[in-house]
Design a protein that fits this description.
This protein has 70 residues and is mostly helical. 51% of the residues lie in helices and 0% in strands. It has one domain. The chain is elongated and about 70 Å long.
Length: 70
């Protein structure tokens, strides 16, 4: 997520366009300002986050109530 001083909704739109397009006039400037390669993917971190969500959302077996019919 970009910092608060990206320039509001219109600035954020330009920010996203510039990062996605290497030919955009502000691409290099905004990549330097953002401080990382917007195309880089941290696969290990992504995998860890997906695993954590899967564990959180895992269905738990329900205890059967003795009053319910099979």
């Amino acid at each position: 997520m970009p910092s608060e001083d990206v320039g509001g909704p219109w600035g954020y739109e330009e920010f996203r366009e510039a990062l996605a397009n290497k030919n955009h006039e502000r691409h290099d400037e905004l990549v330097e300002w953002w401080g990382n390669d917007p195309t880089a993917i941290d696969a290990a971190n992504l995998r860890n986050n997906v695993d954590a969500l899967a564990a959180k959302w895992k269905r738990r077996s329900r205890k059967k109530s003795p009053n319910l019919r099979p």
